[in-house]
Amino acid sequence: MSLALHLPALQVALPLAAAPLAVLARRANAAFLLVTLASWAAFAVAVLLWLQVGSQGAISYALGSWVPPLGIEYRVDRLAAFVLMLVAGIAAVALPYSRRSIEAEIPREQHYLFYAMFALCLTGLLGITITGDAFNIFVFLEISSLSTYVLIALGRDRRALVASYQYLIMGTIGATFIVIGVGLLYLKTGTLNLADMSVRLRDMTSHRPVLAALGFLTVGISLKLALFPLHQWLPNAYTYAPSAVTAFLAATATKVSVYVLLRFYYSVFGESLVFQSLPLPQLMLALSLAAMFFASAIAIFQDDLKRLLAYSSVAQIGYITLGLSFGSASGLTATVVHLFNHGVTKAALFLLVGCAVARVGGSALSRLAGLGRTMPLTAFGIVLGGLGLIGVPGTAGFVSKWYLVLAALEQGQWWLALAIVASSLLAVAYVWRFVEIAYFRAPPAGLPARCEAPLALLVPAWLMVAASVYFGLDTSLTVGSAAAAAAELLGTGK
Can you give the pLDDT at residue 492? Predict the structure, then answer.
């Protein structure tokens, strides 16, 4: 029996098996080794699935040999394979980084629990992406959310508990909306298989329960992806969580939620209902613009670099949903490209902030004064990541915004192209705040002499910086995969 046939099952099973084994080991080193090997294996599986989908088309895997829609199906198409690579790849980089990072942020006796929760969170995110079953999306969402609450609460600042509790309350509300939406769809269709559900909904697009399900799912998923103004949980969660957790969540959790929104909009409800029969595109456009401008403006006035970058994430999510609001192939391509590029860029930034935290004891901007002199590699990496947030040519962020501008001009909305450029100027302002602090101010007096972060932290962080620059220069993987995924979702692909 060929192992290649069971890659979809292995994608979820590997990190899932690592979680209880890490708890049973009860030793930090053993737990680290188990979860890291599982994440690397999961990344290898994700790459193999991406290659398989590229050569053979979408993969359908029936669990327990129960043929769908009777049984649970794992389904990997171009979009799912692309997101699986992002999630597993970020985890494969974040875990080696976390071993040194959590030494100063989490008590030693809790390290094995950290790795177990990390493995469960990874399991949930991969499961959400690969499953073809609507209820399983909810189940995996809860697995990832519950483990995320614990990971955030492990932060050394007492405010991490408050941030975790706030996220728990809002996350539970979002999950409730999602399960109500799924229940309404099951009520009307009698199936939970997404592909079968899509077929049965074709003649029910005007039925009130279907429209209600669309509304519940849109609100619930928007809360999970932190769409403005449902983002209140995100700034505190990113600020007070351990650095490795912040980097992983910022790069993956909200991106997987965007994936779920795309999956329901295009693969279940259909483009005609969402983008032609209802005013959802106009609503998405308004909320996206609000995120781009208001969240960026708020970021400028933050005194903590992690909180500044957290509000930047809310703004960048606005760019992702802006592409979705166009309802076109080019807009959808821009959404998928920015989903990937922002994940890579923000992972690099938060990993580098973790390098600084390890040396200066916090991420307050006042503590980072003179960082360009004392930690030049860390400071320069943050500047490069900041250029990516602005969208400077040569960075991954430029590619994303370029395709957003093209999508706006394609529809004759030149004012939207100007809005994208204008909001990017706000990013210049908050990135400049760090540049000013790091390069034009002297290090705070009375603190011990600083030195560059250890290689165990710098190497993973700079690997993500290099990826951010590489994907800004070579777009064959990102744009090529995004365009193919968009064509497949719209039904125009091969």
Answer: 61
With tokens 């009698």, the residue in question is 190
Three-class SS state of 2: coil
CB 344, CB 362: distance < 8 Å? no
Tell me the helix, strand and coil percentages in the chain, rounded to 5. 80, 5, 20
> What does the alpha-carbon distance between residue 149 and residue 343 come to, in Å, rounded to a whole number?
20
3-state class (DSSP) for residue 133: strand
Is residue 161 a contact partner of residue 97, using CB atoms and an 8 Å limit?
no
Report whether 16 contacts 47 (CB < 8 A): no
- For residue 204, the surrounding DSSP H or E stretch is none
Residue 269 included in any domain: yes
pTM of the model: 0.90
Number of domains in the chain: 2
CA distance 380 to 438: 9
Range of the domain at 135: 1-278
- DSSP character for 62? E
**The residue count for the chain:** 494
Q: How many CB atoms lie within 10 A of CB 197?
A: 24
Q: Is-contact 337 403, C-beta < 8 A?
A: yes
* CB-count exposure of residue 11 (10 Å: 0-12, 13-18, 19+): buried
**Is the same domain home to 225 and 83?**
yes
Residue 322 located in a structural domain: yes
Q: Is the peptide bond before 235 cis (omega within 30 degrees of 0)?
A: no
Whether residues 33 and 123 share a domain: the answer is: yes
Q: What is the mean pLDDT of residues 346-372?
A: 85
Of the three residues 258, 278, 298, the one that is the final residue of a domain is 278
Give the span between the Cα atoms of 227 and 201, in whole angstroms.
Answer: 27
The tokens for 269 are 């409800």
75 Ramachandran zone, left/alpha/beta (phi>0; psi -120 to 50): beta
Share of the chain above pLDDT 90, in %: 29
Mean pLDDT of the chain: 87
Quote the pLDDT of residue 205.
Answer: 66
Amino acid at 227: L
